[in-house]
């Protein structure tokens, strides 16, 4: 946020970029649960209807400030212990996947987290925003998982992640944000002591 403010204080003539970012996020929230033929493009069109800009400019601003620039901060901002938790899952032969409403591969790389599968809502095989379960259904299919009871979806927003998980019939664990600094460390200890 400070970097964003610092950038635009020196470039007040580019104030429209702030409006683009605001409306892009707001419209995606407004369209939660939408299923479309081409979500990747529609998300920009929703924003474009709210601002006086071009599609190219909207995409450039979003690419810079949502998909690229924040990645440099992810290592420091991620939940402590999440990397070690995922590594332990791998050691125990437990398959891992991430499902995000945004493309997550670059973000995972920046956090040095290796998963078996990364899925986003905008992929052509999904084309639906949470809480629709399309992304989780796709993961189950891609990973050949038949028994949903053997899965666990961990998320930090019950109204999106939790609803999505319940709609897919998958057990859900809500991250306790108040104790977020201990959440994955405690899970890791439980995993190591469970003998799974």
Notes on the protein architecture:
The protein folds into 2 domains: 2-73, no CATH class; 79-194, 3-Layer(aba) Sandwich (Rossmann fold). Helix content is 52%, strand content 7%. The chain has 196 residues and is mainly alpha-helical. The radius of gyration is 18 Å and the shape is globular. Strand 3, helix 9 (158-168) and strand 4 form a beta-alpha-beta unit. The protein has a two-stranded parallel ribbon with strand order 1-2. A two-stranded parallel ribbon has the order 3-4. The chain has 10 helices and 4 strands. The longest helix has 15 residues, at 16-30. The protein has helices spanning 2-9, 16-30, 39-48, 55-68, 74-77, 82-91, 105-110, 134-142, 158-168, 180-194, and strands at residues 97-100, 117-120, 153-155, 172-174.
What are the key terms here?
single chain, 196 residues, mainly alpha, Rossmann fold, 2 domains, 10 helices, 4 strands, 52% helix, globular
- Choose one word for the global shape: globular
Average pLDDT score:
93
- Tally the structural domains: 2
Summarize the amount of helix as a percent range.
40-55%
Strand order of the largest sheet: 1-2
The helix-and-strand class reads mainly alpha
Head-to-tail CA distance between termini: 41 Å
Q: List segments where confidence is low: pLDDT < 50 over at least 5 consecutive residues.
A: none
C-alpha-based Rg, rounded: 18 Å
Largest sheet, strands/sense/barrel: 2 strands, parallel
Separate helix tally: 10
CATH architecture of the largest domain: 3-Layer(aba) Sandwich
Number of E strands: 4
CATH class value of the largest domain: Alpha Beta
